[in-house]
Specification:
It contains eleven helices and two strands; from the N terminus they run ααββααααααααα. It is mainly α.
């Protein structure tokens, strides 16, 4: 485990090399949360309930969405496909460490760094808006943490899948950009998905997107009963297993033909 711990420390330190970029990224996330909280606070000044959510639930939802973006959707693998196509990944292939393990440690370090900043940002937001945030029951809290960890694993696998594009094509950013756009509108980051028409909500549940944020918030807020939570976690586990098998197969094919161009 020593080499993994050292790698985690190095990955953590590398994330602070470009401090201005890191600061601007976090400042953007902070402003996004401020805008969302301001809009919903204004909406609730004239009414006590909107689309089945009272003010306390909606404000808690916004806080959770910001936190989950750092826990689940933040990743260090955005440039993985470019690293594969350029041949840079060959440096990891010859090291005495699993490639996926190496990438996982990089991703964990990035998430820990983002969580560190989101805790500071959340404290500032709390001082600005003074919200009332209801805490979940002990069981729901544990299930919430489990769902967050599973969502992070699924996002890691999906990023590996997109990274494999680099084995065959230099055009790596287009598909990932489309994925970002779809997540923005279908993961529940901007608004709760259950305010959508029922048929559209059901269609979204045929994709992995609700399991990046929406399902976790519903567990935390106690809006799902035990049976619903079981099926949601079972569906999430199914997506993880299915995506992992597909990703592993694609990476095996890609590595078999990999020529490490440019190295």
């Amino acid at each position: 485990m020593t080499k993994y711990i050292q790698l985690l420390k190095l990955s953590w330190q590398n994330g602070f090399v470009y401090r201005t970029s890191l600061f601007m990224w976090r400042f953007r996330q902070f402003l996004s949360s401020v805008m969302s909280l301001t809009v919903w606070t204004v909406i609730y000044t004239s009414q006590s309930s909107v689309l089945g959510y009272d003010q306390t639930q909606m404000i808690t939802y916004i806080f959770l969405s910001a936190f989950l973006q750092s826990c689940i959707l933040a990743t260090a693998l955005n440039s993985l496909s470019g690293r594969v196509y350029s041949g840079e990944i060959s440096a990891q292939l010859v090291k005495p460490i699993s490639l996926f393990g190496y990438l996982a440690i990089e991703d964990v370090a990035d998430k820990l760094r983002n969580i560190f900043f989101i805790l500071i940002e959340t404290s500032l937001l709390y001082l600005i808006f003074i919200p009332t945030i209801p805490l979940p029951t002990l069981l729901n809290g544990a299930l919430f943490v489990l769902a967050v960890l599973m969502g992070a694993v699924m996002n890691f696998i999906i990023n590996l899948l997109f990274g494999a594009i680099g084995f065959w094509s230099p055009d790596t950013w287009g598909p990932k950009f489309m994925f970002f756009i779809m997540v923005e509108f279908t993961a529940g980051k901007l608004f709760p998905l259950d305010i959508l028409p029922p048929i559209l909500e059901k269609l979204l549940y045929l994709t992995p997107f609700p399991y990046f944020s929406f399902v976790q918030t519903q567990i935390f807020l106690g809006r799902l009963d035990s049976v619903q939570i079981f099926w949601q976690l079972a569906s999430l586990a199914g997506w993880i297993v299915g995506l992992y098998l597909v990703t592993r197969w694609i990476w095996q094919r890609g590595l078999r033909d990999y020529a490490a161009a440019g190295q």
